[in-house]
Design goal:
With 175 residues, the protein is an alpha+beta fold. It has two domains: 1-36; 38-50 and 87-167, no CATH class. The protein is built from three helices and six strands. It has helices at 5-36, 52-63, 72-87, and strands at residues 39-47, 89-97, 124-128, 134-140, 148-150, 153-155. The chain has a four-stranded antiparallel β-sheet with strand order 1-2-4-3. A two-stranded antiparallel sheet has the order 5-6. A hairpin with a 2-residue loop joins strand 5 and strand 6 (153-155). Helix 2 crosses helix 3. The longest helix has 32 residues, at 5-36. The termini are far apart.
């Protein structure tokens, strides 16, 4: 191998830096592409049974100290509103593929015709269930005739089913 001389060594070092920078950009690009293409697959949609405890906790979270001061009809209307909102509450089990992808939960929603997108529902209390990409989250007011909209595209919802034993430890907590 011929000697490079003082300028040749600097040139070779520059090529290595350039090659390293290109490799780094390529890896970052793959990572971004990987994130962009993370898919959400719905494994199950489970209606949440609304217990009195949940109604009381939600009322307390929404009204705070003012709850004690609510009189008859006003308190009844507040309770009816909470029950109505909780009536359409679902626990959704999902899988993210690939499991190590950074999934953008803020990009998951469901269109509500006639409403502005900012008022559409979004996942609540997303929880990783394992390292294999399984997650659970809560969602209000699902319309089973419409897909969930995700960063990777629309996802069809399966029909509702009872909460399986493996998910019964997940409790809804009032925001």
């Amino acid at each position: 191998m011929p000697a490079l001389g003082p300028r040749g060594g600097a040139f070779l070092a520059g090529l290595l830096v350039l090659a390293g920078a290109r490799m780094l950009r390529a890896v970052r690009g793959l990572t971004r592409a990987r994130r962009r293409h993370a898919r959400l697959r719905i494994l199950g949609v489970h209606p949440v049974t609304v217990a009195e405890r949940l109604v009381r906790e939600t009322l307390a979270a929404q009204w705070g100290d003012r709850l004690a001061g609510l009189a008859g009809g006003t308190r009844e209307r507040a309770e009816a509103e909470v029950r109505d909102r909780l009536r359409d509450l679902y626990l959704i089990e999902a899988e993210i593929d690939p499991p190590t992808a950074e999934f953008q939960w803020a990009g998951v929603t469901q269109e509500v015709p006639g409403e502005v997108p900012e008022s559409w529902q979004a996942p609540y209390d997303e929880q990783a269930l394992d390292d294999a990409g399984r997650w659970a989250f809560f969602f209000h007011c699902l319309d089973f005739s419409r897909p969930l909209l995700t960063p990777a595209g629309p996802v069809t919802l399966p029909p509702p089913s009872p909460i399986p034993q493996r998910l019964r430890h997940i409790a809804y907590e009032a925001p």
